[in-house]
Design brief:
Layout (H helix, E strand, L loop, with lengths): L2 H18 L9 H6 L4 E9 L5 E8 L1 H7 L11 H4 L5 H13 L3 E7 L4 E11 L2 E8 L1 H23 L1 H10 L3 E5 L5 E4 L1 H7 L3 H6 L2 H4 L5 H12 L4 E9 L5 E11 L2 E8 L1 H23 L3 E5 L5 E4 L2 H6 L3 H4 L13 H14 L1 E10 L5 E11 L2 E8 L1 H54 L5 H27 L8 E3 L1 H16 L3 E7 L6 E3 L1 H18 L4 E10 L12 E8 L6 H6 L17 H11 L3 E6 L5 E8 L25 E5 L3 H13 L3 E5 L2 H10 L5 E5 L7 H11 L5 E5 L14 E4 L4 H15 L1
Helix pairs in contact: 6-7, 16-17, 16-22, 17-21, 18-19, 19-21, 23-24
């Protein structure tokens, strides 16, 4: 239907509503209200042709009209009934037109031959020339009544021809049987009448039957009585008779006139009517519950055909209820779930119920939704309820990902603790090696070139070991960091020449830096090393040829399981290499794991990046799949202020050392490190006392009041270096303490009790500078 036609139809509907006196449909959608009626509704207007013959045309029909007539309602507004139903009986045209012209309602029952159906129709006037029809299809009822009438006729013949048999039936029938006269009295009643009504036979024969009928039913009963007296049988007429206890019984009558008498039989339908009323009440309650529920409800036959569905099907899956009635239960189920669904249906038929099961069902758009179903058989039909599991499954998936991330985080934390412990022990070994190399260089007088070469190689190996330890400490988040507000985008821009020289001419770099990106809080030197590691890894993955995307931007809200809510600066390195499968990706940030050949990598590059990000308060993410390349993201917290001024780190002062030799107490639980440190201090001209643990050091302080400096290791059994420094203040408040450690983090509050710190391993020059700084700080 085109838009002009739709508008004309709407205007006709508005005219009809105005004729009803309800006004337009701005506040109430009356057509939608009418579409909810079970009865068919027709609004029509009387017209006359050129010769004055009466006809009428449709103005509006509801959805039930199509269901009850079997005709399409499309474009019906404005069409004549004789065009819509060409063979319609003329009396229907005239009778309905008369309702509008005479302004009198009518009740009519009869067939429409063209449609092959019988209708019970209530016609009522609306306004001049307009009327309405409310109708139901009563074909089945009329056919049943015809059968009952035929049965009554057979019964009457049988009564005449087989009086003896009738007498026996009279006595044993469970239904009431009576013979009444035209005066309104029973002349004969069978035993069932006395049983059902509770009155004696004498009372029933002596009482006008109208006195036994409920006052509300007397008018209808009198009209039926008059018809019977005119020799017209009355079939399936119901009224209420008073019982001897004062209550009423509903009776369904079939009456046949014969030779001035009325022969009638009645069946007690009191319980049937009560059951029907209860059933209707339950249906109304069910309808209300269905309308208020967002779950899918349905009633299905035992052969799997939808009979009724709730309105929620339209809101959840897009199907109107009338589209689904008559559909098989498995028509919308995902093909992968069909076998399972059919087995469940067979189980339901066998056991009578099915608990919670999950199936995918298609919506009108073709998308599939997970629904949880339960079903039970009752009253010969299947009642089923389905609930959308989309949100539940999304929450379960988020929980699964969070649990995986937590497990990975705990795994890396455990590896970090192990790596940190190994790095600490390795640091002590390197410290001993480096100090002894330094002392050996001093002891050899006029070394030849070969000796110097050997010493240089040994020192270079120790330096390489120290760098490896720093990578391990970075993964363990124990490296010594100097976090400051850093312009990450500018840092990447400054690094470009270094990056280009590192990746070679076969890799093209594409940059995307947001100018408004705020400062990140991070150690700039360590960040440069991390980015260089990622870029070199990307180059190796692409085998020296491809495109590398480097970006820097702000992410306002981060929804990550191991990140606090807030804003983060994100540095992203993406390559178009072959990518990694899930197994390799899961191990990529673990220390010493590498896919490179022997001698081509330590396996600490990505673990160092991970450790830097976590120690800086951020996170490191890898996203990769075969054929999709790899994307690495470093999340760094936004700096609270742009102030780049920071206090100088402890232990880095270049203050001039004392001119006189010092008396120094050295404390370390590792004998080799202790001896190496003692040797360096003596080489620098200082007097040295030694202790292997904290209690021994305190004893030395009590015994020697002239000690000028305390140098202590941090990680010692029994008493740590920071605890020793705190304890020494009780004995010598003015005594400076130099703390030696390979870890980047110190216990809270330890900075206030130490004069400086020295990272392990250290050279003789670094030791001398640290002593100068510590003594200068307190001096």
């Amino acid at each position: 239907m085109n838009s002009d036609q739709t508008e004309r139809d709407r205007m006709r509907t508005i005219d009809f509503l105005q004729g009803l006196g309800v006004g337009g449909s701005d506040r109430v959608d009356w057509p939608a209200v009418f579409d909810r009626l079970h009865e068919g509704l027709v609004i029509a207007e009387v017209v006359h042709d050129a010769r004055g013959r009466v006809n009428w045309r449709y103005l509006h029909v509801n959805e039930a009209w199509s269901r009850l007539t079997g005709l399409s309602a499309e474009g019906i507004a404005g069409r004549l009934v004789t065009d819509v139903i060409p063979g319609v009986e003329q009396h229907w045209v005239e009778d309905f037109a008369a309702v509008a012209l005479e302004q009198e309602p009518r009740n009519l029952v009869g067939p429409v031959s063209e449609l092959g159906r019988i209708y019970d129709i209530r016609a009522f006037p609306i306004s001049k020339d307009r009327f309405g029809l409310l109708f139901l299809d009563v074909t089945e009822r009329e056919e049943n009544e015809t059968k009952l009438r035929e049965r009554a006729e057979v019964l009457e013949a049988r009564i005449r021809d087989e009086f003896g048999a009738r007498a026996r039936v009279w006595d044993v029938s469970p239904d009431i049987q009576v013979v009444a006269n035209h005066a309104g009295y029973f002349e004969q009643v069978n035993p069932a009448a006395t049983v059902i009504l509770g009155h004696s036979k004498e009372v029933l024969l002596a009482t006008p039957f109208m006195e036994l009928i409920h006052p509300e039913d007397r008018v209808g009963t009198l009209a039926a009585f008059e018809n019977v007296k005119q020799d017209q049988p009355v079939l399936r007429f119901e009224n209420r008779y008073r019982h001897a206890d004062g209550s009423y019984r509903w009776l369904s009558w079939v009456t046949v006139p014969h030779e001035g008498r009325i022969y009638a039989t009645a069946r007690d339908v009191t319980q049937e009517r009560a059951h029907a009323e209860e059933l209707e009440l339950r249906r109304a309650e069910r309808s209300n519950l269905w309308s208020a529920s967002r779950d899918l409800h349905l009633i299905c036959s035992l052969d799997g055909i939808y009979q009724e569905v709730s309105d929620a099907w339209q809101s959840q899956l897009g199907f109107a209820p009338e589209e689904l009635v008559g559909m098989r239960f498995d028509a919308l189920i995902h093909e992968d779930d069909l076998d399972f669904a059919q087995r469940l249906f067979a189980e339901l038929l066998e056991t009578g119920s099915v608990g919670h099961v999950e199936l995918r069902m298609r919506d009108r758009a073709g998308e599939f939704h997970w629904l949880g179903w339960s079903a039970v058989i009752s009253g010969g039909v299947i009642f089923a309820t389905g609930r959308d599991l989309g949100e539940k499954r999304r929450q379960e998936e988020q929980l699964r990902l969070a649990e995986e991330a937590l497990a990975q985080s705990r795994k890396l934390e455990t590896l970090g603790q192990l790596t940190g412990g190994v790095a600490h022990d390795f640091n002590n070994l390197l410290a001993a090696i480096q100090t002894n190399l330094s002392l050996l260089r001093r002891q050899i007088e006029a070394p030849d070139d070969r000796t110097l070469t050997l010493l240089d190689r040994a020192q270079a190996s120790a330096d390489r070991g120290a760098k490896l330890v720093q990578h391990m400490l970075a993964f363990a988040r124990r490296q010594d960091l100097t976090p400051r507000p850093v312009n990450a985008c500018a840092l990447l821009d400054d690094m470009e020449p270094l990056l280009r020289s590192s990746i070679g001419p076969g890799v093209r770099i594409r940059r995307q830096f947001d100018e408004d990106t705020p400062l990140a809080l991070v150690d700039a030197n360590q960040l440069e090393m991390a980015v260089l590691n990622l870029v070199v890894n990307a180059r190796d993955a692409m085998e020296g040829r491809g495109t590398l995307d480097l970006s820097c931007r702000l992410v306002e809200r981060v929804d990550e399981p191991d990140l606090s809510p807030g804003s983060y600066v994100v540095i992203e390195v993406r390559d178009d290499g072959p990518g990694m499968d899930a197994a390799v990706l899961a191990q990529a940030t673990e220390p010493f794991f590498t896919t490179k050949g022997v001698g081509k990598g330590t396996g600490l590059g990505l673990s160092m990046v991970h450790g830097l990000a976590r120690q800086s308060g951020g996170a490191f993410r890898l996203d990769s799949a075969p054929g999709r390349g790899t994307t690495a993201r470093i999340f760094l917290p936004v700096a609270a202020t742009a102030d780049t001024d920071a206090p100088e780190r402890l232990g880095t002062s270049r203050a001039a050392g004392p001119e006189r030799p010092l008396k120094i107490l050295v404390v370390d639980d590792d004998f080799l490190v202790l001896m190496g440190t003692v040797g360096m201090l003596e080489a620098l001209g200082h007097e040295v006392l030694e202790a292997a643990h904290g209690e021994a050091a305190l004893d030395q302080l009590r015994a020697h009041s002239d000690i000028d400096l305390l140098i202590t290791d941090q990680a010692m059994p029994g008493m740590t270096g920071a605890q020793l420094a705190e304890a020494s203040r009780a004995l010598r408040p003015e005594l400076p303490v130099l703390l030696c450690t390979g870890y980047g983090e110190l216990p809270p509050g330890s900075e206030s009790v130490i004069a400086g710190r020295l990272g392990k391993p250290f050279t003789e020059a670094q030791l001398g500078e640290a002593i100068s700084g510590a003594v200068g700080t307190t001096g």
